[in-house]
Design goal:
Length: about 210
């Protein structure tokens, strides 16, 4: 088999927390009088919380101290976490669950490679708390995507060489990160329109053919 492991991004791939990120950032942007829309939101995919804030602040007229920025990021995260509480196993789509189970039955190792510090909480909410063989997330990295660190760590946790790993991503920065780490990638959602991944997917179930 070409791939021994699949490393999944979480937000926008395994589940759709991206709408909650948008809502929480929008609330903060509105409060600060900053214009914010879906196009700007797409630039935040895969990017760390503090780097996301910096992108939003590109349109801010004033200046904020580092302390104020940290408070803004905390405020966004508090609202985001409130929104995440409504997630449940019903937010795990049948195609995602069926595909994960199919890959597992073929003895493919399955990991998470997410920039989020909330990854474990989200996985618990959707009923996948104990599912993955390894979780690499925002708590074990110092550089976020497009740096490959989160995926390189995931491969290390699994004990599988990079060349045998496939990364599944919805973010342009995530596809770039996979390539920088020497890994093939499968794009879905927003990432498909850049045509920079090894595979562009129409549906999550395409993975069952890619990892054959
Ligand atoms: C990524 C999201 O998964 O996690 C980004 O795509 C987000 O939009 C990043 O900024 C960090 O998330 P968190 O939960 O640590 O604020
Ligand atoms: Mg994502």
């Amino acid at each position: 088999m070409k791939y021994e492991a699949v490393i999944f991004d979480l937000d926008g791939v395994i589940c759709h927390t991206d709408k909650y990120h948008f809502q929480a950032w929008k609330a903060l942007a509105d409060k600060l009088g900053i214009y914010f829309d879906e196009t700007i939101n797409n630039r935040l995919r895969g990017v760390s919380r503090m780097e996301s804030l910096e992108i939003i602040l590109e349109r801010y007229d004033g200046t904020l101290t580092q302390e104020e920025k940290v408070r803004c990021a905390e405020e966004k995260n508090d609202l985001y976490k409130e929104l995440l509480k409504q997630m449940s196993p019903a937010d795990l789509s049948p195609e995602v669950k069926e595909t994960l189970d199919t890959l597992r039955a073929r003895d493919v190792k399955l990991a998470i490679g997410s920039s989020s510090k909330n990854a474990r909480f989200i996985l618990g909410q959707i009923g996948l708390g104990d599912y993955f063989d390894a979780i690499s997330d925002g708590n074990n990295i110092t550089n976020s995507k497009p740096d490959p660190e989160v995926f390189v760590k995931a491969a290390e946790f699994l004990g599988i060489p990079a060349g045998k790993c496939l990364v599944v991503e919805d973010a342009e920065a995530g596809i770039q990160a996979a390539a920088a780490g020497g890994m093939d990638s499968a794009a879905m959602g927003d990432a498909v329109r850049y045509h920079i991944a090894t595979y562009d997917m129409d549906s999550f179930t395409d993975l069952q053919n890619i990892v054959a």
